Amino acid sequence: MMNKKEKNIEDISIWIVEDNIHFQNTMNNLINQFDGFVCNFAFESCEDALIEMNNTAELPSVILLDIGLKGMSGIEGIKKFKEISPATHIIMLTIYEDKNSVFDAICAGASGYLLKDSSPENVIEAIKEVLGGGAPMNIHIAKKVIDMFKQLNPPKGDYGLTGREKEILNLLVMGMNKKQIAEKLFVSFHTINTHIKNIYEKLQVNTRGGLVAKAYKENLL
User: Looking at the whole model, is its pTM more than 0.85?
Assistant: First the structure.
């Protein structure tokens, strides 16, 4: 669905994949009321979104994605979207809060996970957070994920992380972005960026969600 809001060149493009039309319209209106964001596309299925993604030169910066969709599920869709556009951040916005859904979404590459009863302010803040390198997740959901990984009681992984890299990994898992980490550790943004690049390479992950999942799954903290 095309929205009538005129896009400015500096606007951040956000897509919605949601089969509840009322909720889809609510999110669409919310995003287009916020300066700097634009939602020009909203789809009822992952299949429709993938067709557009394969045919457009302007890929979205963020996708708000439901899980329980007709046809391809949202979790299946994450993998397909990331194959086409690895840089696109995906925030799950769903009614599903069971541990398996949260875990599967994060492992598939989701950058954040919110429930549909989140306030409009929380949704906008979540979008800002992923764009800043964060991993938005409400406390209730985060606790479910942490509890699940604790129950797995995995052996401690060894990827040759330095003490500083482990310290930064812990702050990343806590949801801090690069700027916040640099300020906390009293080092330059460039230094933190280099450390984070090395962490991603050592852990062989390419998304924030994958990093968090691996850190807990392999007891790296």
Answer: no
**Pairwise CA distance, residues 142 & 46, whole Å:** 26
Please give the tally of structural domains in the chain. 2
Q: What is the CATH number of the domain that holds 47?
A: 3.40.50.2300
Tens-place pLDDT, residues 48-60: 999 999 998 889 9
Burial of 139 (0-12, 13-18, 19+ CB in 10 A): exposed
Would you state the structure tokens that stand for residue 151, as one six-digit string? Answer: 């129950």
Confidence of residue 7 (pLDDT cuts 50, 70, 90): low
Q: Do residues 24 and 133 share a domain? A: yes
List of residues 6+ apart from 140 with CB closer than 8 A: 97
20: which 2 tokens?
Answer: 């509840």
- What is the biggest distance separating any 2 CA atoms in the chain, rounded to whole angstroms? 53
Are 5 and 52 spatial neighbours (Cβ–Cβ below 8 Å)? no
Encoded amino acid at 131, one letter: L
73, 105, 138: which is the final residue of a domain?
Answer: 138
What does DSSP say about strands 89-94 and 62-65: parallel, antiparallel, or unpaired?
parallel
Give the model's pLDDT for residue 146.
62
Domain, as residue range, for 181: 153-217
Residues 33 and 121 in one domain: yes
Tell me: do 38 and 127 sit in the same domain. Answer: yes
107 and 74 in a common domain: yes
Same-domain check for residues 181 and 158 = yes
Cα–Cα distances in angstroms (integers) from residue 42 to residues 49, 150, 216, 218, in the given order: 8, 37, 33, 37
